[in-house]
Model the fold of this input.
Amino acid sequence: MGGAHARRSPAAGGRARRRRGRKAGAGMAALGGGATLVLALGFLGGWQAKAMSAPPVLQAAPAATIDVRGADGDGEVEEASTQTSATTKRPTIESVTAVHATDDAQGRATVLLTVEWENTTAYTTGLVPTFTVSQHGIVLEQAAYGEERPAGFEDASRFRKVLPGTKTSIQLAYVLLDAAAPVLLQVTDGTPNTFGSEIALEMR
Done:
């Protein structure tokens, strides 16, 4: 029997094949698990890289508040004022005076009104009020002078325009019905003034 190969039984051969199969399966499982781990690590690394490269999310800063406290120290918060000096839509009438003036071209007695006003608007303008001047409930007509005119009377002063903040005056003349009765002046267009909607003027 020397030099002759011993024959293995069929059962022994089957067991050997099963062992080799189990080893091969274990190797494939280990290989598959390693590949899965590599893929997982690669995904995790890519996600971290994207997270690190993404721009930071900026949170809006809280709105600033202005704490303006009263001079009395009561601690109450007041609203800060941003307004500048007040202006009006129309100039403001400050005063009106009435004086007896020269007779008109027809020899009738007249009264001269001097209206002091200030341009309280934000633009260059003139005073164009709507006045009603009356005596005993009757509206007076404007006077027209001839060669003789009241001293200092400027008929064109009604059309004068001035810069904002400027004070000036205009003169208006009316024919009197009663030289002894006061004259009632009414502001009918809402022009700002210091005396209200009307004023009774005693003539000097």
